[in-house]
Amino acid sequence: MVTNSSVIELLSWNVNGLRACRKKGFDEFVRERAPEVLCLQEVKLNPEVIPDDDFGYPYRRYHLADKKGYSGTAVFSKIEPLSMTVDFPDGSHVGEGRVITCEFDDFYVVNVYVPNSKGDLSRLGYRHDSWDPDLRRYLCELRLKKPVTLCGDLNVAHQEIDLANPKSNRRNAGFTDEEREGMNNFLSAGFVDTFRHLHPATTGAYSWWSYRAGARQRNVGWRIDYFLASEELAPSLREAFILPEILGSDHCPVGIRLDRP
Is the pTM for the entire model greater than 0.85? Predict the structure, then answer.
């Protein structure tokens, strides 16, 4: 990929198992695309099987769950971060490897894998009453210092335009009123959904498809992977994109391109 030195590309991808994804073209994709910052969710690694490969990135951090082969996040950067920290600073929501924060000179990148509410909605209360408010509070605290970009699998389709079958999924995990309210609260706190900011009326733009019934081939999907950015970054936003042609996971990569500070 030919890059413009005045622009920085940030990419996010729920790989649904990094080892499995590497057998389906991950290495080739990363080598060709080579974003400045690459954020992964659901790496599903154990400490003893973290890859030795750096994928061409001098700065990297894995954050794994206590439960082996579950959840987990990773960040790779070509730009030297001032710091790379994990979880929330108050010590809440630990053990599942869901948050990595990279501080750069001019902004933060927060990579997050938001808990799924589960099919029986047994985790919806935790998500709505605890996780989402705590994440919003953390982002707002960071924003007092410098602009913030949040990326990852947020496990919610915000609007009806963000999934193929909104009516039949009305109370299903990922499209409940409570989860959508959580997204509303992020936006009302001064963050923008970068894709919708640049593509407010685009339909059929999804980042996750069920493995069942040929959903991906028929593009019966959901947009649940995002880049949110604090409002002051919006003037620097050049592109916000989804790469549905990239296989290897039930999710596809999403990304943004920003003017370099």
Answer: yes
